[in-house]
Design goal:
The chain is an all-alpha fold. The protein folds into two domains: 122 residues, Ribonuclease H-like superfamily/Ribonuclease H (Nucleotidyltransferase, domain 5), CATH 3.30.420; 214 residues, no CATH class. It has 18 helices and two strands. A two-stranded parallel sheet has the order 1-2. Belongs to the RNase H family. It holds the Pfam family RNase_H. GO terms for molecular function: metal ion binding; nucleic acid binding; RNA-DNA hybrid ribonuclease activity.
Length: 387
């Protein structure tokens, strides 16, 4: 069986593996033992050891939750045993190699296959268990339920949001070589590598929630606020973050590029708004490089925004180039110090950052790095090395 998965279902390896598992279950007689061999640990774990926890929490935050629920209900309909076996991909397993061939055949089909994602609600637990709930999880479930209502969904699906989401997805595709799902972009704005204040900034940026430019054009007595006071043109977030001639964005992106060159020996092109919105979706092969990219782009963009607000809203004098330099450097050093502090396993337990990840993130960008010990995470004077 070869399947071309409809784009509406999703476009990722995990989606493909899950659809294949679901179709195998639905096409096997209910009273025959079925053994499923897969190289997808995510799919197998989701249908076995993670299932109870996910179901207790109403599949909250689970990627491809509808597909998982449909597969679980198909499993529970069966009368005979179903056995899951993990196999290493591309390791010579005959069945796995044959599955890869069929998957490639599916991608070459001229039209998508008919794949039904149907949940048998009688075979699934409704909602979530009360003892599994926290205030945060309850809020998210309420929001999830609201999103099923067309009127609420339409409010959020404004044209500006949809347009910005497309920009973010296209930027992510350029960086990673594949178009991410909308849900993945939203999830990336809450990535652990993004600081809390910046998470809200990215969320608002995608939603076009900041009142700049055209938002003021039709408000009597406030029309002048639509224009950039420095450049004399209508303000947009793209203009503020990447094009404005006022002191701020140009210097900050120069500093970001300088740090990036230390890390990768490559220049960092001035990012677009789409690249800023999608910065946390990066799939750069080296985990430390990917992590520094998320921190560097998100923190730099947020500092540009803060400097603009100080100048325009708080009516402070424009910051000098030296002040901008020092504030950007302080921002990076704060993140570095926070990383070092969060490696304390005694204090933070399982939530502590791995020292190896922190070392990989900041290697090549530290001041006097050659004189630092191999593990510098407890050194008081470790600093970012430009300036």
């Amino acid at each position: 069986m070869s399947i071309r998965i409809p784009r509406v279902i999703g476009k990722s390896n995990n989606v493909g593996e899950l659809v294949a598992i679901k179709e195998a279950i639905e096409n096997c007689p209910l009273d025959e033992v079925l053994e499923i061999k897969s190289d997808s640990q995510v799919s197998i774990n989701g249908l076995t050891k993670n299932l109870k926890k996910w179901e207790d929490e109403g599949f909250l935050g689970v990627e491809n939750r509808k597909l998982f629920r449909a597969t679980v209900s198909a499993l529970r309909k069966r009368k005979a045993r179903t056995i899951f076996t993990w196999v290493k991909g591309h390791a010579g397993d005959a069945g796995n190699e044959a599955a890869d061939i069929l998957a490639k055949e599916g991608t070459r089909k001229p039209i998508p296959s008919l794949v039904e994602i149907r949940e048998n609600t009688a075979l699934l637990l409704p909602g979530a268990k009360l003892q599994s709930m926290t205030q945060s999880k309850a809020y998210k479930m309420i929001r999830q339920a609201k999103m099923k209502k067309g009127r609420y969904r339409d409010k959020l699906n404004r044209r500006a949001t949809a347009r910005n989401m497309e920009l973010a997805k296209e930027a992510a595709a350029d960086d990673n070589g594949e178009l991410p799902e909308t849900s993945r972009v939203w999830k990336s704005t809450r990535h652990n590598d993004i600081s809390r204040s910046v998470r809200f900034f990215l969320w608002m940026l995608i939603h076009d929630g900041y009142k700049v430019g055209k938002h003021w054009a039709k408000i009597e007595g406030h029309e002048f606020k639509a224009t950039c006071t420095h450049c004399g043109i209508t303000e947009t977030m793209e203009h503020i973050l990447t094009k404005c001639d006022a002191p701020g964005q140009e210097k900050i992106w120069e500093l970001a590029s300088e740090l990036w060159k230390l890390k990768t020996d490559e220049d960092l092109p001035r990012p677009t708004t789409g690249q800023i919105m999608a910065c946390a979706t990066t799939k750069k092969k080296d985990t430390g490089t990917a992590r520094l990219f998320r921190i560097l782009i998100s923190e730099s963009a947020y500092l540009v925004w803060r400097l603009r607000n100080e100048r325009v809203i708080q009516e402070k004098p424009p910051a000098s180039l030296d002040e901008i330099h020092n504030r950007w450097l302080r921002t990076m050093n704060i993140r570095l110090k926070l990383d070092c502090a969060l490696t304390n396993a005694v204090k933070y337990g399982t939530r502590a950052l791995k020292k190896s990840l922190v070392l990989k993130t900041w290697v090549k960008v530290l001041k006097n790095e050659v004189n630092l010990p191999k593990d510098w995470t407890r050194e008081a004077e470790v600093l970012v090395g430009i300036g």
